[in-house]
Amino acid sequence: MTRAVIVGSGSEIAPTRVTNAQMARIMDTSDEWIRERSGVEARHFATPEIATSDLGVAAAEKALAAAGVAKAEVDLVVFATMTPDHYFPGCGTLLQHKLGLRTVPCFDIRQQCSGFLYGLQLADAHVRSGLAKTVLLVGAEVHIGFMPWTRENYAYALGTSDVPPTKEEWDWNSRFRHLVVLFGDAGAAVVLRAAEDGERGVLDHELHGAGADYEKLYVPGTGFKHRPYTDPEQFKRGDHIPVMDGRHVFKMATTSMVEVARSVLQKNGVAPDQLKLVLMHQANQRINEYCAKALGLREEQVPHNIHKYGNTTAATIPLLWDECTRDGRLRPGDLVLMVAFGAGMTWGASLVRA
Fold first, then answer.
1. Which of these, 269, 323, 320, lies nearest to 117 by C-alpha position?
2. CA angle 62–68–73, rounded 5-degree value
3. Which of 44, 143, 205, 281 is catalytic?
4. Quick one: 72 exposed, middle or buried, by C-beta within 10 A (0-12, 13-18, 19+)?
5. Contacts of 236 by beta carbon, 8 Å cutoff, 6+ apart
6. What's the pTM value of the predicted model, to 2 decimals?
């Protein structure tokens, strides 16, 4: 049997670290409030010259180097993001050009926080079918474009300006505090190669999508449901900033992630204690702690990095994979379950032997 094996990984964190205390300089929030609700302590934001494709390229360079794979060997690119450089084209061909790859097929996928798992299934299917032998799978995000504050407000948060927000600016920023404090910018990538008759590789997937409740987590404006798709009135209303019903998302995420994790494990005859690691999407540490308890997982099986980076959407799972590989928590032969839930709504799980 031909399997897709993850042979290398890499990650790139945006350069500007922003703490909860700095966020509290420009909106009604606090370090305690943010930590208690999400587990986030800090996040990193991209500087103006850094785009999503740039973070993806930097991560991909590291992944290829770690894998010992030449760029000429890559025959498929899959790029997962909800924050592309442009409305179109997607980031796939931009990464292909910046990396200097051959003119290989480039997929752009938009499953938000589940994007990496959807991309992993796509890459795996191409390898299993013989359509590709070496796949570069990238998840990257630059969320700072969603942030509601002015440049002057941001400079004040960072301590590079002495001009605090006006009352109107403070109230505007605070309107979105439950959402904007969660996100950070990063890129992460893995290289998958076809392997024959080995035990390592991607073993199984289960993915789901259900749009009935999409308005519980979405961006109401700047889409082609509007004519024109963007206009000043949408920006005045804040329709370009995501909307989230936190309680609904928490309930749906915990239920869906536990169910899909159990389903994949049962189909493959794997007990939770046989897993070396469970890499959960880093959207909210409380969600992950709930799921870990429901699945009967030990604390050391479920690594977290949301406290350092916030929610980096499509990058969270490959970023965790890369960190665990570099610090020795993940080694060849280890059995790993990946689980995610995202806007759409989308969710899924993938079982992989490293």
1. 320
2. 100
3. 281
4. exposed
5. none
6. 0.96
Query: Phi and psi of 209, rounded to 5°?
Result: -145, 135
Which residue among the candidates 20, 173, 284, 311 is catalytic per the annotation?
A: 311
> What is the pLDDT, as a whole number, of residue 282?
98
CA dist 318 and 11 (Å) reads 8
Mean pLDDT of the chain: 97
- Which tokens in the block code for residue 64? 């290829």
Instruction: Determine the average pLDDT of the residues in 248-267.
Output: 97
Question: Is position 113 annotated as part of the catalytic site?
Answer: yes
Catalytic residue among 20, 44, 91, 113: 113
Exposed/middle/buried for 48, CB within 10 Å: 0-12, 13-18, 19+? exposed
- Known catalytic membership, residue 281: yes
